[in-house]
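JOB MANIFEST
job_type = single_chain_structure
chain_count = 1
residues = 456
[input]
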Amino acid sequence: MPEDLTALRLQLHEGRRHAVELVESALAAARGPARAAFLRLFEAQARVAALAADQARAAGAPTGPLAGLPVSIKDLFDVAGHPTTAGSRVLADRAPATHDAAAVARLRRAGAALIGHTHMTEFAYSGVGWNPHHPPAANPATAALDPATPRIPGGSSSGAAVSVATGAAWAALGSDTGGSIRIPAALQGLVGFKCTARLVPLDGCIPLSPTLDTACAITRSVRDAVLLHEVLADRPVRRLPRPPGRWRLGVPRTLMLDALEPTVARRFEAALCGLRAAGYPIEEFDLPELTELPALQTHCNFPAAESWAWHRTLIEAHEARYDPRVARRIRSGQDMQAADYLALQRARAEWIERVQARIAGFDALLSPTVPCVAPPIAQIADDDAAFFRLNALLLRNPSVVNFLDGCALSLPCPPAGDWPVGLMLWAGAGQDDVLLSLALAVEATLSPANTACGLA
């Protein structure tokens, strides 16, 4: 396992590393290879937090679980003393925040050294990670495999993932409305955990769709995902260790396995093979309710309706300053009727009830996080049709979980060093502890040491 927050905490506790050193290294990466991942840095705040953590440890004083550890913040969340602009030009003149967002306050209380606000899709409205207002934050994981071809980072938490992948942060606060944490995690070989939405408060966060928005984190390992969730949700995770044969896992054949790129299909099947070889029972089954999702959202969808409600005054006055692709999606909510919105709420509740009944026999479901590996940025930079096709493809699988009001975690399919592919574990609302416990076991089973089924 690569160095992660959990390993760094031990090194700090034993005096083998110092928080000041970690923060300076992170800031150097943020000014260097991860420059495009950041819209602004919080250098003074980060250094103060690191020094305070080192001094507290030296004095034998208690420290928080993230004391002095570098964490980046998506530019949706208020950080006291800095403006929050959601990656937009429209909010470029916004006054600095006077208070931290609730999630940021919890990170700061845990001792985190906040490194900076990260690059993102404007107003979090796409899964691609492209923002024409700022230099592209290209995918660092694929750059190591194909240096000549800049590839998309995934979004909307694009800079969040790049900050972790480059060492400019050891964890990143982001948001997930239809996959915005899990998509960039999958495309960059990282871990992204989307908790049940209501577990982390969204106060001080610019909304996209309050019905679906979730504050959560990108990390380097599942054990770090557990740590970050405990901080953000302000609650302990109850570990549920079980032998492989005691887990009940399902693979929905409907929709989630359609149109997989060969690399994704091969790696997903190899992961399933590795889990079966380790003793996990896995059942493939049909989930026909997934085919209903397009029709359910034909006349109204939550992101369009709810983003229009937030943006309507701004966009009427400043539409020329918006990313045209984002403005187009926000404008699609303009003519939605209240009756359509209320009907969608009722239809969603009924759909969730039917899906929950069908998956009740499983502890979790397994799917590819996204059906493709990261494509070149050049394919979508100037081609609207290609952009919207790719965006729909990237959102297809992860957005199912948001509509379900569930929880999900994307972790890398082995082997490391190949094109990053995500394995998504998902379940219904409130199953976060079960899912995290399973993810810890799956991560260990699919570690690089496992050579079964072509995993290495």
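[summary]
The two ends are 14 Å apart (CA to CA).
The chain has a mean pLDDT of 96.
exit_status = 0
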